[in-house]
Design goal:
Helices cover 36% and strands 24% of the residues. The protein has helices at residues 10-21, 26-49, 114-131, 166-175, 182-194, 244-258, 266-273, 279-289, and strands at residues 2-4, 57-66, 69-78, 82-89, 93-98, 101-104, 110-111, 137-144, 149-152, 160-161, 227-229, 232-234, 241-243, 264-265, 292-293, 300-301. A hairpin with a 2-residue loop joins strand 11 and strand 12. It binds zinc ion (ZN).
Length: 306
């Protein structure tokens, strides 16, 4: 049973939007690719985890603070006898391990060995369990989900679940009976209550409103909409059609995410969207969906409303 679902991390969303509206540095572009790949791997694992049966709680994407350190858990499974701390990796290509080090065969580049991160996470989680007097066993694993990942020289005693072992991991989990009690429920509730929605460590490039390209982005290909056809916007790049209302709302949400400190006003959104629609259209759509203050030509919408 999924108790906490996964959503696209805010940092990834912001970088995706910025990438369409400004020139990112090579480092930021690399970070965007890594975040995107990581998220896709986690979603792939979630699809696998849908096959988990029996009484088990699954908590995805937890961010906890333990002894002033951040503990980020991709997936946490609570079973009757054991709790599983899973770090999901979407590595692609051929890698090898030498000692404690992990290398890409193709580029020779050294990668962070996920085992170090896993050990640290398991230690922090044990400290948290001790603090709350939880007596559950923790089994930590790194789960590699990409079928095109190969790891040479992996020691057999490493807590790694390789792509060829993913299905078996779920199957063997399912073969173990599991009944949950109040203690398990309390553990799940505690972790959920400690979850920190904001990532304090996100690294965003600096950007200003003035420097970003204005316009409405197509949700399918990310190009700017230029054509209006009755009640729809038409993407001339990919042919996508979107209702004007839905496109205004989507681009308003993007504006709010990128500039949480700026006021949402009719004229502001009109400028942000920069497309040949009347001020009246913007006002009508915004008034329908956001609580508003005042009733002038430039209506101002309540801040912090989601
Ligand atoms: Zn498009």
């Amino acid at each position: 049973m999924f108790l906490k679902n996964r959503t696209e991390p805010e940092e990834l969303l912001i970088l995706k939007h910025l990438n369409k509206r400004m020139e990112l540095t090579p480092n930021d572009r690399k970070r965007l690719t890594n975040l995107q790949r990581g998220f896709e791997g986690e979603v792939q694992f979630d699809n696998l985890a849908k096959n988990i049966i029996e009484e088990r709680y699954i908590l995805n994407d937890l961010r906890l603070e333990v002894n002033n350190s951040e503990l980020q858990i991709d997936s946490f499974i609570i079973s009757q006898g054991i709790t599983y701390l899973l770090d999901v990796k979407n590595f692609y290509g051929d890698f090898y391990i030498e000692g404690d080090q992990l290398f890409s065969i193709k580029t020779g580049e050294e990668y962070k060995n996920p085992l170090d991160q896993l050990k640290r996470s398991a230690l922090l989680l044990r400290q948290l369990f001790n603090y709350y007097n939880f007596n559950f066993l923790i089994e930590p694993y790194v789960i590699f989900v990409n079928p095109e990942f190969t790891l040479y020289q992996a020691p057999m005693d490493h807590p790694f679940i390789l792509p060829t072992q993913n299905n078996r991991f779920i199957r063997e989990l399912n073969e173990t009976p599991s009944r949950l009690n109040e203690g398990h429920k309390k553990l799940a509730q505690t972790l959920l209550s400690l979850h920190q929605p904001k990532n304090r460590f996100q690294k965003l490039p600096e950007y200003r409103y003035e420097q970003l390209k204005k316009g409405m982005l197509c949700k399918k290909c990310g190009c700017f909409f230029s054509k209006i056809d009755h009640r729809n916007l038409v993407c001339e790049n990919c042919g996508e059609l979107e209702k004007i209302e839905s496109a205004i709302l989507r681009n308003t949400e993007e504006f709010k995410l990128l500039f949480p400190e700026r006021k949402v006003t009719t004229s502001g959104i009109e400028e942000w969207c920069r497309i040949d629609l009347s001020n009246r259209t913007f006002r009508r759509v915004l008034k329908k969906h956001y609580p508003w203050i005042g009733n002038t030509k430039d209506t101002y919408f309540k801040p912090g409303y989601n």
